[in-house]
């Protein structure tokens, strides 16, 4: 049987240099608008001391970046392939999204949130949900498709989409200094975990959910005028290390067997034996 040619992906073409240009505009919206309308937080220890700071520094600029990402996907005509990514993966990889969801729920600083106004908590939910939607749309949505359509293997698609995701967070160096470089390395590994969530779920909604809840748990430790330390905040760090170790050990078993990936079935045992 002759090999069938791969179907041409629907929509416009976007090369990786142009994708990087899209990412720069995406960053400019968040950082630029945040600088223009944001609340100065330099004098306090809290990341988001008030509802106003969350709205002006987070909800508005991140919300506009989500609209920008949606406009790019619409222009490219990629909504079908961005929202649905049907690439098989081994069953054990389900541990990644399940463990991240469980740890995120446990790591939320509930005592600190209980001391805050309802408006602040709702604003925090909105902001972190937008982060999950916007970053996953840009990097596991557009980014994964860019590298996939360039003909890269799944391993390289995961690698480069995660590297770009991590490098984007170097922009935080403007406000956080050299620590942002270390953050970028950690975020790159998180990007790979979110990519695996996409593979497990087959839809972009799963990494959006995991990402949003993960960020909610992390940021919950830095809101309010006087945020208090919470022992649960160590759990995401522990899980990050555990996932890195697990994926280093099992990295060669992420992909399913070749026959399953190709959509074919092995020959029945009696047929294989009949030629002997």
Describe this structure in words.
The chain has 13 helices and no strands. The protein is mostly helical and 276 residues long. The chain has one domain (16-254). Helix 6 (118-149) crosses helix 7 (154-168) and helix 6 packs across helix 10. The chain is globular and about 55 Å long. The two termini are 24 Å apart.
Looking at this protein, list some descriptive labels.
single chain, 276 residues, mainly alpha, disordered N terminus
Q: Tell me the distance between the termini.
A: 24 Å
User: Residue-averaged pLDDT, rounded?
Assistant: 87
Round the Cα radius of gyration to an integer and report it: 21 Å
- Assembly context of the chains: single chain
Helix content, binned percent? 55-70%
Helix-strand blueprint:
Elements: H1 16-37, H2 51-76, H3 79-83, H4 95-107, H5 110-114, H6 118-149, H7 154-168, H8 173-176, H9 179-201, H10 205-219, H11 234-250, H12 258-261, H13 269-274
Brief sketch in words of this structure:
Residues 1-6 and 259-276 have low confidence and may be disordered. It is built from 13 helices and no strands.
């Amino acid at each position: 049987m002759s090999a069938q040619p791969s179907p041409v992906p629907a929509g416009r073409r976007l090369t990786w240099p142009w994708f990087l240009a899209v990412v720069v505009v995406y960053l400019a919206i968040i950082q630029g608008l945040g600088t223009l309308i944001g609340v100065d937080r330099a004098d306090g220890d809290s990341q988001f001391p008030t509802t106003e700071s969350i709205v002006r520094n987070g909800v508005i600029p991140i919300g506009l970046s989500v609209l920008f990402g949606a406009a790019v996907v619409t222009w490219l005509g990629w909504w079908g392939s961005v929202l649905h990514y049907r690439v098989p993966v081994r069953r054990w990889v389900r541990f990644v999204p399940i463990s991240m969801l469980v740890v995120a729920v446990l790591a939320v600083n509930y005592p600190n949130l209980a001391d805050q106004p309802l408006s602040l908590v709702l604003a925090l939910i909105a902001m972190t949900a937008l982060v999950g939607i916007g970053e996953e749309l840009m990097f596991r949505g557009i980014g994964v498709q860019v590298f996939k359509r360039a003909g890269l293997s799944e391993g390289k698609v995961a690698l480069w989409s995660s590297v770009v995701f991590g490098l984007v967070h170097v922009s935080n160096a403007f406000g956080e200094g050299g620590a942002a470089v270390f953050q970028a390395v950690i975020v790159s590994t998180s990007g790979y975990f979110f990519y695996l969530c996409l593979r497990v779920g087959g839809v972009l909604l799963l990494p959006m959910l995991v990402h949003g809840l993960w960020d909610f748990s992390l940021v919950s430790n830095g809101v309010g005028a006087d945020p208090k330390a919470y022992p649960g905040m160590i759990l995401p760090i522990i899980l990050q290390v555990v996932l890195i170790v697990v994926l280093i050990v099992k990295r060669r078993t992420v992909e399913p067997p070749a026959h399953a990936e190709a959509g074919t079935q092995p020959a029945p045992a009696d047929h294989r034996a009949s030629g002997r």
